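Ex. 9. Protein: isocitrate dehydrogenase (NADP(+)).
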Amino acid sequence: MQHEKLEISKIDVFFRNPYVCFNKKSQYKKQFEDKKIWYEHRLIDDMVAYAMKSEGGFVWACKNYDGDVQSDSVAQGFGSLGMMTSVLICPDGKTIESEAAHGTVTRHYRFHQQNKETSTNSVASIFAWTRGLAHRAKIDENSELKKFAESLEAACVGVIESGKMTKDLAICIKGMDSVVRKDYLNTFEFIDAVAEDLQKRLQS
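Predicted structure tokens for isocitrate dehydrogenase (NADP(+)):
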């Protein structure tokens, strides 16, 4: 976990308190030691540098602004903001908010308004719906809805793994200057490919 200032404000103390017990004698100390994991508090600049050189294997707890910015950095590191899911869960476990990353398609929408072709990665938007539907299925104990949500997510992954992708992912493979039109699908072509894959999964 990290915070952005050396001076610890009231909100920093509030944010840290639930985790202080990890470094003191408590019910969590032995559980952490048994699993060979640990907790440490880091400043934001130190943590960002660590994340960039790290191979993963850690949980990064951030406050709202830091989490908003750094989650986008991590998502881009894995290919695209269009691949990032965002789910907020209430303490009651019943209420959730599922959304795509902020600003995912704004620039593309401006091109669309000008009747220009776009190649928008719709995975984040699709997963925003599937995570919501999956939660609804859990609450209602609806197995068919659960299967649909899981199948749609699997279809997105399957299409990309088959080599059909939007321009943002093609750039990750070939580089900005080497990508040509045949290397990627436009927005509608990608959605059609996902829909075709989904139908096959639902019929199997």
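Check your answer against this statement. The beta strands are 2-3, 42-43, 85-89, 96-100.
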